[in-house]
Amino acid sequence: MKKILDYEEMQDLLSSLDKDIIVKEDPIGFTNFGMPIDHYSYGHGDYHLIITGGTHSSELITNIFVIRFMEKLSNKEIFIDPNVYTIDFIPFVNPEGTVIVTSAIRSLIKRNISCDAEQTYLLTFYRNSRIEGIYYDKDENHDIKLEQWMFRYATPECIDDKYLELKNYLRGLFKENDLPRGCMINWSSNGRGVDLNSNLKESSFIERVKSGEKIYAHNHLSNIRRDKLGPLGCPYYDRPGEVERENKALLEFYEKINKEHKLIGSMIYHSCGDIVTYLDDMSLKNPFVDNYSEDNTMANRKIALKYADVTGYKLDPKEIYTTVDSYIKTFYPVTLLIELGSVTATPLSQFMDLDIPGSGEGFKHVYPKIIESNTKAILDVLPLMVLNYDERS
C-alpha cells in the first residue's frame, strides 16, 4: 500500500469514515484564504482529549497519523469507550500549508506510481537531504538544495485552481521574496507564509525580524530565509504580535472545550525525532509562568513517561517557551508534544518502509512503527489522563 496521501486524498478518506463513529463537526474556524479548519469527534463521554496534526505542513506524517488513527476507530480495529471519552480531532491545523506541500509532492510523485517507486523517491529525498547536511558549514551554503532540485518544477502553478486565491498570492510571494526554487517541498508555514508555532507576540524571534537581521534556516534548509514570509520560520505577516486565523481558532477551541467539558489534555503532533516533550521546568523564561500550577508538573511527567515507554521515544522536558505549543501546554495541562519519526527530512522520510541490510534499526520500517507505536500509546495513556484529571479536580 502506498503511504503518501495528498490533501484531496486525505479528505476523501475522511469522508469515507463511518459517520456514526467519526462525526464531522462544524469547523473551528477558517483560514485567511477561506479554507475550513475541520473538527471531527469520536464518542460522547465527559472526558475530552484534543488531538492535532499539521501545524507545520511539511510534517505531513502528523496529518496522516491522526487520520489513520481515526480510520482505526471507524473500522473498529481499536476501541475507546465512547461513553467515557470524547476525542476531538483537528487533523489539519494548517490546511493551506498542506495543500501547498502535497501539491509540490504530486508534481513529481504521482498518485498512480507503484509502491516500490514511491519508496525509491522517499529514500532518494532522504539521502539528498543528508548530503546537504554535510555541505551545511561550507561557505554559508545558500544554494539550491538537492532535495529541492528534485522538486524544482513544483511552483505555485501546480496548485489546483480551486485554491486560486491562495495560488495567486503565492505567485506574488515567490517573486517578492525571491524564494528558492523547489522550496515548496519544504513548506511549513501557512498560506500567507507565517510559521504558526512562532506566531505569538511573546516570540523571541520577533525582535530579530523587526531589526532586519538576515536569518537563515539551519542544516539542509540553509537557503531559506526565516525573517521573510515564506516556507518556514517567519512569526508574523504584517504587524508584530498579529495572530493568524488558524491560531485564533485553535486557542478559542481549547478555551471552549476546557470551559464546557472535562479536558483531560491534548496531544500535539510534530515531526521528527522520536521525542515526547512535556512542560516541566517552569523557570522565569516562560512568559506565561503565572498561569501555570506547579501541581501539574508531576502529572505531566508521569503521562509523558508512559507515552515514551510505549513508543520507545526519548523523554524531553526541555522547552522553548515562546511558541504557541508552549502557550497551550502552560494553560492546558496535560499536553504532550510528540515528534513522530526517527529520521530527518520532512515531508517524505517518515513514510519510508524499508529494510535495507546494514541500516540501523531506527531507519527500518519507519512508517509502520510510527502508526503502530503511537496508536498503542494513545490507548495506554488515556486511563492515566482521566486519573490525573480526577485527582486535580
What does the secondary structure layout of this molecule look like, with pairings?
Blueprint: H1 7-16, E1 22-24, E2 29-30, E3 36-37, E4 40-43, E5 47-52, H2 60-74, E6 85-90, H3 95-106, H4 115-135, H5 146-150, H6 164-176, H7 206-210, H8 245-260, E7 262-270, E8 275-277, H9 295-311, E9 314-316, H10 324-331, E10 335-339, H11 366-392
Parallel strand pairs: 5-6, 5-7, 7-10, 8-9
Antiparallel strand pairs: 1-4, 2-3, 4-6, 8-10
Write up what this structure looks like:
The chain is α/β, with parallel strands linked by helices and 393 residues long. The chain folds into 2 domains: 11-95 and 244-392, Zn peptidases (Aminopeptidase); 97-221, no CATH class. The chain is built from 11 helices and 10 strands. It has helices spanning 7-16, 60-74, 95-106, 115-135, 146-150, 164-176, 206-210, 245-260, 295-311, 324-331, 366-392; strands spanning 22-24, 29-30, 36-37, 40-43, 47-52, 85-90, 262-270, 275-277, 314-316, 335-339. Strands 1-4-6-5-7-10-8-9 form an 8-stranded mixed beta sheet, with helices on both faces. Helix 2 (60-74) links the parallel strand 5 (47-52) and strand 6 (85-90). The longest helix has 27 residues, at 366-392. It is globular. It starts with 6 loop residues before the first helix and ends with a helix. The mean pLDDT is 93.
Name the features.
Aminopeptidase, two-stranded antiparallel sheet, single chain, alpha/beta, 393 residues, 8-stranded mixed sheet
